[in-house]
Amino acid sequence: MKRTIILIAVILLFFPFICFAQSGKSIYQKYSDADNVSAVYISPAMFRLIGKIPDLEFNESGLNLAPVIRSLSGMYILNSENPSINASLGGEVDRFIQGGRYELLMEAKDDGEVVRMYTVGDSKTINSFVMLAVDGGEMTFVCLEGQMPRDETERLIAESVK
User: Fold this and answer.
1) Whole-model pTM?
2) For a disulfide at 135, which of 2, 65, 112, 113, Cβ 3.0-4.6 Å?
């Protein structure tokens, strides 16, 4: 009985750490004020404002971004040239990806530069898109959150990398 009570106490003590769901926002908040880190956050209010624009097309490519932009609830971008931050940020993004059951959408490697894109969601909707790019001493983390239509988002990604 005493062992059971101790076991329950230990589980309850660590329960907040087990249940802590890391997000792109928490990673952004942790690193956005660090030295040699550039940070950009775009809020849901800004996406609602942008979403009122009927069509957001790039003239040359004809890509219409409006359906995806309207569905976003947050965008977090970090760019770091700080080696110690890069090591910590890279490890944290890896844990975030593994913990959230993300699937690798694309990986590109060229002359030491590595870009990986991940998504999580279901067959119709992407709840989160994460990109991590490493180029020498520079690391860029991008996280888009929302209820993005999977077919539109994947079409835009495919057309933009052509």
Assistant:
1) 0.77
2) 113
